[in-house]
Amino acid sequence: MTRPPEPVTLVDEMLEAIEDGLHTSVDLLDPESGSEMIEMISYHLGWRESAPAAGKGKRLRPLLSLLTCQAAGGEWRDCVPVASAVELIHNFTLIHDDIEDQSETRRGRTTVWKRWGVAQAINTGDAVLILAHLSCQRLRQSDISAGTVLEVQRALDEACLRLTVGQYLDLAFETRPDVLEPVYLAMVEGKTAALIASGTLSAALVAGARPPIVEAYREFGRHLGLSFQIQDDILGIWGAPEVTGKPAGDDLRSRKKSLPILFGLHNSKEFASLWNDSALGPDDIQDMTNELERGGALDYARQASEKHMDTAVAALDSARPLQPAADELHRLSINLLGRER
Length: 341
Fold this sequence. Notes:
- The chain is an all-alpha fold.
- The chain has helices at 10-26, 35-44, 60-71, 80-100, 112-116, 118-137, 146-172, 181-206, 211-238, 241-244, 250-253, 259-267, 269-275, 282-295, 297-318, 325-337, and strands at residues 105-106, 109-110.
- A hairpin with a 2-residue loop joins strand 1 and strand 2 (109-110).
- Helix 3 (60-71) runs antiparallel to helix 16.
């Protein structure tokens, strides 16, 4: 007996619209002179040769924008250009971050720089950023005021600036002997929270929400981003390779000063001794992981993530979001706490 097709949900419609919006942006490139660049962008976005563990990513950031617009009383389809811009900005940073971090894989696949070379990857990342700017300009095709379009563009540009500062701090941490948690949080504010917050803020602007509501959605996105990054820190050590697409303990191996690692360095002499060892083998990575758990780093990171999530949900509730987007935003937030990748 054939099962009836699953009903199309609001999120399904939004995800389809996000892909359409991204394709509209990439289609601005000339198919003849820019054919290989189109191939690189399409590959990175998950439209080419997508491995099971890779896919397109979850499109979390653009989905949050569309749901926020609907929850704030707007027509979510008007916000697709913003959602596309947010996702393109995110992917521009990923292409460049992979070069700066010398990461050879992302989502289980070869990174753009490793496959096409550093020079082409830098140029392609630049192109993706410009496509994000042009995507935002498509807001003018709807009944969105010129003033609102400028506000949205400013919010996204400021997020880009904060992203670069966040990346600077992340790179600088590699050579700093002692990184304190407040400085780490400043890095996360720029590298992760800023873009998510600008996406929810911009969506509320497109919806025509009042300033206090716009600010509530900004705070929602900001704390959601902080919680998301701390969860990412946890996965960077304890995530399953077959799910994350990265080796177990990857952040330990690359000496990344994430929140659990900072906790371990400041609270466990045993962990600090292992960390300062010049040569790390597979057994050392496992020993470090075990020591972090024994010292309470995993529990500390989980509690920090939950605290920011609670603050995010409180900000969301204060905005009095409309249904059905309200339920979807709550569901998405809760699922982030238990995410595997």
